[in-house]
DNA sequence: TTCATAGTGAGAAAGAATTCTCATTATCAT
DNA sequence: ATGATAATGAGAATTCTTTCTCACTATGAA
């Protein structure tokens, strides 16, 4: 049996610093696209492949967490935050962290089912979009 | 301006009957793959293109509703059900409807944000999978 | 029954998201 | 400073899902 996990050597590159910085400064989850845009400002010419590679290793080493936003794909955020939920703007697709988990998700499960966790996403319009446009009509998909 | 919406003529074919039947008999949301498998039993040789075409028209005419299960893609179920949430088995990917919406999703939103709805997905192990395997280790993705 | 045409199946094609390849560059232990 | 090699960027390639094309079939109004 192989020794528990060969921690791949990781060099502290400009690109990876930019990527970690992006998450540290962002006060919200980022999609790969958003991350690429933000981190590119810090590290010009940042390649998309590097973004994916870095995300993967950061997730593996437990520094990042993946969250799936229904209808908007994968987003990433610093791991270890307190349990919370997300708000997704149907208009601009920005995802925001919401405080706490007030929702006492006390759902009755069928016999034999066992829950391990839950995902809650509130969707609607963020303040920025609400200002511009009046109530959106249909759900963005 | 064109007359409000030319309701495309819809013929009552064996394939579409099989697809509607699949949803009527299924007591849970189905993915395209699952639908294809189930409806194929009723209508042998059912093509995947027809599955997609039918789903699209059923969604358009409001007979079906799309639900996104984080990490498991799109599922479909009869529209008009009472507000409820879903359980997704991390092991077999089966999605189940849960009764009511006990979760008083009373989350404090940031200033200016307005909610239009919420998605709640409980994930864990369904009874069938719980019987076989003991507590799963990692979250299925 | 007839027949215009909506619907179908099979596979090609299109999209998108992510991964891979590989020549070049940058990191960092020595 | 040197050098072995991890990391990068660009674009090709993959994978997965959904849509399109087209020859053929089946529906249903007449």
What's a concise summary of this model?
Chain A is an alpha+beta fold and 141 residues long.
Any overview of this molecule?
2 copies of one chain form a homodimer. With 141 residues, chain A is an alpha+beta fold. Chain A has a single domain (14-132), classed as Winged helix-like DNA-binding domain superfamily/Winged helix DNA-binding domain (Arc Repressor Mutant, subunit A). Chain A is built from 4 helices and 5 strands. Chain A has helices at 14-25, 32-42, 48-60, 127-132; strands at residues 64-69, 73-78, 85-89, 95-98, 114-125. In chain A, the strands form 2 sheets. Chain A has a 3-stranded mixed beta sheet with strand order 4-3-5. A two-stranded antiparallel sheet of chain A has the order 1-2. In chain A, a hairpin with a 3-residue loop joins strand 1 and strand 2. The radius of gyration of chain A is 18 Å and the shape is globular. The model of chain A is unreliable at 1-5 and 135-141 (pLDDT under 50). At the A-B interface, strand 1, strand 5 and helix 4 of A face strand 1, strand 5 and helix 4 of B. The first copy, chain A, binds a DNA duplex (30 and 30 nucleotides) through residues 8-16, 32, 45-50, 52-53, 56, 73-74.
């Amino acid at each position: 049996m192989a020794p528990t996990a060969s921690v791949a050597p990781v060099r502290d590159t400009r690109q990876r610093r930019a990527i970690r910085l992006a998450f540290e400064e962002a006060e919200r989850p980022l999609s790969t696209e958003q991350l690429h845009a933000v981190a590119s400002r810090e590290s010009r010419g940042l390649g998309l492949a590097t973004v994916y590679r870095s995300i993967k290793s950061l997730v593996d080493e437990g520094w990042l967490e993946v969250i799936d936003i229904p209808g908007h794909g994968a987003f990433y955020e610093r791991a270890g935050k307190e349990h919370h939920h997300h708000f997704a703007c149907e208009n601009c697709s920005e995802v925001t962290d919401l405080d706490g988990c007030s929702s006492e998700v006390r759902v009755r499960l069928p016999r034999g089912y066992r829950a391990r966790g839950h995902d809650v996403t509130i969707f609607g319009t963020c303040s920025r979009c609400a200002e511009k446009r009046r109530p959106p009509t249909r759900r963005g998909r």
